[in-house]
Amino acid sequence: MSATRTVTVGSSQGLHARPAKLFVEAAQNTGAQVTIAKGDKSVNAASILGVMSLGVDKGDEVTITAAGDGAEAALDTLETFLKTDHDEA
Protein backbone atom coordinates (compact mmCIF):
# COMPACT_ATOMS: atom_id res chain seq x y z
CA MET A 1 0.00 0.00 0.00
CA SER A 2 1.24 3.48 -0.78
CA ALA A 3 -0.13 6.97 -0.29
CA THR A 4 0.80 10.40 -1.64
CA ARG A 5 0.22 13.90 -0.36
CA THR A 6 1.16 17.41 -1.54
CA VAL A 7 2.22 19.83 1.20
CA THR A 8 3.25 23.50 1.28
CA VAL A 9 6.43 23.94 3.35
CA GLY A 10 5.99 26.29 6.30
CA SER A 11 9.52 26.48 7.71
CA SER A 12 11.00 29.96 7.16
CA GLN A 13 14.30 28.44 6.00
CA GLY A 14 12.69 25.66 3.96
CA LEU A 15 14.36 22.25 4.22
CA HIS A 16 17.92 23.40 4.78
CA ALA A 17 20.39 22.32 7.46
CA ARG A 18 18.58 21.74 10.78
CA PRO A 19 15.00 21.39 9.44
CA ALA A 20 16.26 18.96 6.75
CA LYS A 21 18.03 16.87 9.40
CA LEU A 22 14.88 16.79 11.54
CA PHE A 23 12.72 15.88 8.53
CA VAL A 24 15.05 13.00 7.58
CA GLU A 25 14.95 11.69 11.16
CA ALA A 26 11.15 11.95 11.19
CA ALA A 27 10.94 10.09 7.86
CA GLN A 28 13.24 7.33 9.14
CA ASN A 29 11.21 7.00 12.35
CA THR A 30 7.96 6.33 10.47
CA GLY A 31 9.18 2.89 9.43
CA ALA A 32 7.74 3.44 5.93
CA GLN A 33 9.58 3.89 2.64
CA VAL A 34 9.22 7.63 2.06
CA THR A 35 10.14 9.78 -0.91
CA ILE A 36 9.89 13.55 -1.24
CA ALA A 37 9.63 15.36 -4.56
CA LYS A 38 9.85 18.95 -5.72
CA GLY A 39 8.97 19.52 -9.34
CA ASP A 40 10.10 16.47 -11.30
CA LYS A 41 12.92 15.50 -8.92
CA SER A 42 12.19 12.83 -6.31
CA VAL A 43 14.57 11.62 -3.58
CA ASN A 44 14.63 9.19 -0.66
CA ALA A 45 13.33 11.15 2.35
CA ALA A 46 15.78 9.26 4.58
CA SER A 47 18.76 10.82 2.77
CA ILE A 48 19.91 14.17 4.17
CA LEU A 49 21.91 14.94 1.00
CA GLY A 50 18.97 13.98 -1.18
CA VAL A 51 16.53 16.16 0.76
CA MET A 52 18.91 19.14 0.77
CA SER A 53 19.57 18.70 -2.97
CA LEU A 54 15.92 19.53 -3.68
CA GLY A 55 16.47 23.13 -2.55
CA VAL A 56 13.08 23.36 -0.84
CA ASP A 57 12.21 26.89 0.32
CA LYS A 58 9.37 28.29 2.43
CA GLY A 59 6.13 28.20 0.47
CA ASP A 60 7.32 25.51 -1.96
CA GLU A 61 4.97 22.62 -2.65
CA VAL A 62 6.47 19.18 -2.20
CA THR A 63 4.94 15.76 -2.74
CA ILE A 64 5.58 13.08 -0.15
CA THR A 65 4.90 9.44 -0.87
CA ALA A 66 4.99 6.63 1.68
CA ALA A 67 4.84 2.90 1.03
CA GLY A 68 4.35 0.05 3.45
CA ASP A 69 2.44 -0.53 6.65
CA GLY A 70 1.35 2.72 8.22
CA ALA A 71 1.81 4.77 5.04
CA GLU A 72 -1.10 7.13 5.86
CA ALA A 73 0.09 7.60 9.44
CA ALA A 74 3.60 8.34 8.16
CA LEU A 75 2.20 11.00 5.82
CA ASP A 76 0.16 12.53 8.67
CA THR A 77 3.32 12.89 10.75
CA LEU A 78 5.44 14.27 7.91
CA GLU A 79 2.74 16.63 6.67
CA THR A 80 2.49 18.17 10.15
CA PHE A 81 6.28 18.44 10.26
CA LEU A 82 6.49 20.19 6.89
CA LYS A 83 3.74 22.70 7.73
CA THR A 84 5.48 23.74 10.98
CA ASP A 85 8.10 26.52 11.10
CA HIS A 86 11.12 24.80 12.68
CA ASP A 87 13.15 28.01 12.52
CA GLU A 88 10.93 29.96 14.91
CA ALA A 89 12.86 31.30 17.89
Automatic annotation (TrEMBL):
Keywords: Cytoplasm, Phosphotransferase system
Subcellular location: Cytoplasm
CDD domains: PTS-HPr_like
GO cellular component: cytoplasm
Major localization class: cytoplasm
Domain of life the protein comes from: Bacteria
Keyword check for Ligase: no
Gene Ontology biological process terms, A to Z: phosphoenolpyruvate-dependent sugar phosphotransferase system
HPr domain ranges (all copies): 2-89
Transmembrane segments: none
SUPFAM superfamilies recorded: HPr-like
Protein known as: HPr family phosphocarrier protein
Originating species: Nesterenkonia sphaerica
Phylogenetic classification of the source organism: Bacteria, Bacillati, Actinomycetota, Actinomycetes, Micrococcales
